């Protein structure tokens, strides 16, 4: 599993038009990533939402705000 030690950022495809579904998908991916990283002894990891539709900035901000309220404390978003 040494090849996975370099994986620190996940790019998650979202619908971009269904806020509830997108939030749940990010939470599901975050939970799985957290569990797998714990098994590997990794503490720093990130996830990045990537809506498939262009979406407006208000949608993205609302989604990220709601995710921040519900995501595990040690998860963060990628900046790029």
- The H/E string reads EHEHE
Q: What is the rounded distance between the termini?
A: 25 Å
The main pleated sheet reads as:
3 strands, parallel
Radius of gyration: 13 Å
Residue-averaged pLDDT: 74
- Domain module count: 1
Given the structure, what is the number of helices? 2
Q: What would you call the structural class? A: alpha/beta
Give the total of beta strands. Answer: 3
Describe the structure.
The chain has helices spanning 19-40, 57-70; strands at 9-14, 46-51, 76-77. It has 80 residues and is of the alpha/beta class. It has one domain (8-77). It has a 3-stranded parallel sheet with strand order 1-2-3. The mean pLDDT is 74. It has 2 helices and 3 strands, in the order βαβαβ.
């Amino acid at each position: 599993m040494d090849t996975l030690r370099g994986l620190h950022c996940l790019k998650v495809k979202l619908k971009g038009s269904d806020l509830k579904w997108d939030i749940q998908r990010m939470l599901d991916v975050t939970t799985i990533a957290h569990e797998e990283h714990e098994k590997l002894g990794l503490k720093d990891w990130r996830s990045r939402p990537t809506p498939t539709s262009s979406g407006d900035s208000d949608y993205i901000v609302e989604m990220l705000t709601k995710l921040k309220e519900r995501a595990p404390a040690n998860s963060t978003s990628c900046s790029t």
